[in-house]
Amino acid sequence: MVFRKLPGVSASGMGLRLSQKFVFLLFLSGLVTLCFGALFFLPDSVRLKRIFLSKTESQPVTVGSDNDLRDHLKKGAKDMEHLRGITSAKGETSTKLKSLSRKPSITNEAKADEKVVGGEALEDLTMSRSKTESSSKDEKFKKCLLKPPLGIEHGKSSHPQTLHRRDKVKEMMKFAWDNYKSFAWGKNELRPLTKNGHIGNMFGGLRGASIVDSLDTLYIMGLIDEYNDAKEWVETSLDLNSNGEASLFEVNIRYVGGLLSAYYLTGEEMFKRKVLELGEKLLPAFNTPTGIPRGVINLGSGTSWSWGWASAGSSILAEFGTLHLEFVHLSELSNNPIYTEKVMNIRRLLNKIEKPHGLYPNFLSPVSGNWVQHHVSIGGLGDSFYEYLIKSYLMSDKTDEEAKNMYYSALEAIEANLVQKSPGGLTYMAEWRGGILDHKMGHLACFSGGMVGIGADDGAPEKRQHFLDLAAEITHTCHESYTTKLGPEAFRFDGGAEATATRLSDRYYILRPEVIESYMYMWRLTHDPKYREWGWEAVEALEQHCRVEAGFSGIRDVYAQTVSHDNMQQSFFLSETLKYLYLLFSDDDLLPLEDWVFNTEAHPLPLLFHWLNDTVGYGLKPYNYY
Ligand code: DMJ
């Protein structure tokens, strides 16, 4: 090394300085080594991570739901157990995983990939969420559906007779709506004989049930002025700050379901705001020792209680078991897992509890979590619980294995214990009271033709045809009960009766949809023209017996020569009966079943996979259908 002489510095002086510097540098490097050594001896490697790992790897994700999930992760073992339940159920969580993993199509490999359990799944979820943070779900939805919701031509049939029939149904809807608007605007239902409104006590202080229930029907029928009136009312007059006693079930299926569908079909943010506001008000109903909600809730105070008529303060299977579809969507839209947690808790309890002969009784204590009495029915009190099992599976794009297993096990028990053949060869679903059969079938139970039908294809391969046959037989039996082209509230198969009401008190028809609902599904599944013929018979009978000067009314006795009206146009007539008829006379691409499931009030909800996945589909603009 050559040291050049610096001006003013002697050679010996320079040598001295250099050796001082050398010693100083040596000392410094020793100090640095010591410090690093000390770092490695710290009790955990947190500090090292802080120094060496990148920010994105170490920082928690800041999207709302992810933080919520992380908060849960930090809680105690009990909560961990709870979350594990949610994840291992594969339902909602695996649906999210599937969609967030953005696989272009559903393959077996993809499904296998998603079978992650416990914390791993949650971790995947949070990491994936961070990547999707920037693009909004609403935007994705436009691209998600496999087909346009309203079809290529709004489901218009090229068959003139079918088109004519559909136009007739649309005219009925307009007639029902116009009269509601003229005489009962803002009330819950129309009283078509006295030409006034009805409020009732099912919805607490909520009003406008017929409006909220009609939004999607008006929209899919292309009654756009009417839809706009309905939308404006919801925006300006639907007051959610009510204080009355509401049925959790009814508010959920009609209001939450109606607003969700309206949002998904139209993209109007206002519907989303309203439904999330309403959803929050329902949560206190779940504050029970088991998390099984009580039937009645005060939407203002949040206090809840059981129906006075329900034995020993019990909750009703068809009520607490008919929240799943809507609540999962509330979680999706709010990015808050709480709604999904609430319904998964119900699911878990029902899955675990011992069931007599594999059957689900209709009454359960929200305090002890035990069955209160052994009455089993596919009709009233039980019905839509079974419906929501198979529909949860379908809505999860067939990933919710727990729902699937529960549904097929329940169906097996139903077949073994309740399904009967009458002397005249009619298949029916009897009711079960602690082991004794009551050979009666309610009108409500007639939805099961459609339910068994839509579940047929996912049953065990050797059972598929059998399920489709069973669905067709039940639908046939329900059609048989429509002896006067409309049917009674309940019909019997004993004492010589073959699908007829034997008691005067069972002879009424209140514009219910269930039989027509099964016609619609069976039409979609088989394209057997008899279902359209049966639907048309019902249209003619509705026109003949139920149409009055100012709307449609239920009737007191379907067998009576002289018709007696009950003076009530139920909101489900607009939401369900007329919608199912309209779909029956439309092409299958109007609300295709590949993309939509209908809640129990006939409000269409999109499959979750399609809702979130933005790599498949059509790239639609769902907000410009008209
Ligand atoms: C509707 O509100 C729903 O279909 C519910 O599941 C049962 N009853 C009525 C119609 O009959």
Automatic annotation (TrEMBL):
Stretches with biased composition (Polar residues): 90-108
Keywords: Calcium, Disulfide bond, Glycosidase, Hydrolase, Membrane, Metal-binding, Signal-anchor, Transmembrane, Transmembrane helix
Binding residues annotated for Ca(2+), in chain numbering: 600
InterPro entries assigned: 6hp_glycosidase-like_sf, Glyco_hydro_47, Glycosyl_Hydrolase_47, Seven-hairpin_glycosidases
Any Gene Ontology biological process: carbohydrate metabolic process
Recorded metabolic or biological pathway in which this protein acts: Protein modification; protein glycosylation
Transmembrane segments: 22-42
Annotated S-S bridges: 446-478
Main function: Involved in the maturation of Asn-linked oligosaccharides. Progressively trim alpha-1,2-linked mannose residues from Man(9)GlcNAc(2) to produce Man(5)GlcNAc(2).
Entry's family note: Belongs to the glycosyl hydrolase 47 family.
Protein name as annotated: alpha-1,2-Mannosidase
